[in-house]
Amino acid sequence: MVYLVSIFPVPDYDLWQTELARGTERRRRHGVTRHWVYRGSDDPNEVMMVMELASLEDAKAFLASPEAGTRAWMDRIGMEIYPTFFVGERIEEADYEDTHDPAQRA
Q: The pTM is what?
């Protein structure tokens, strides 16, 4: 799996969320298998979005596709700055739940 990650300000979170929901099928057609959205704890108009795609080729095609409408979509919701996208693969995962209590590790 490959992940597209971007952090960006949105001028109107509710509008952004509405437009995000409207684009579900378009993202699916372009290889996005799922996404996660995080909202800034100190700034509710700062968003981090992570999209999962099957391959690097799918990610590149998604970003380059005029039909995916990434830039047009950002213009429509009033984004003033196009964010950069990190494209990468997950190489490590760790779970720290309950690891501090030796009794629970037994």
A: 0.80
The continuous run of DSSP H or E covering 102 comes out as helix 102-105
If phi > 0 it is left, if psi is from -120 to 50 it is alpha, else beta; for residue 25 that is alpha
For 22-52, the pLDDT digits (tens) are 889 989 999 999 999 999 999 999 999 999 9
Residue type, 39: R
When mean pLDDT is compared across 3-7, 21-25, 38-42, 76-80, the lowest value belongs to 76-80
Q: Which CATH class is domain 2-90?
A: alpha beta
The order of strands in the sheet holding 2-9 is 32-39, 46-53, 2-9, 86-88
Q: Are strands 32-39 and 46-53 parallel, antiparallel or unpaired?
A: antiparallel
* Measured distance CA(34)–CA(17) in Å, rounded: 15
Q: What pLDDT does 99 receive?
A: 63
Task: Answer yes or no: are the C-beta atoms of 52 and 7 closer than 8 Å.
Answer: no
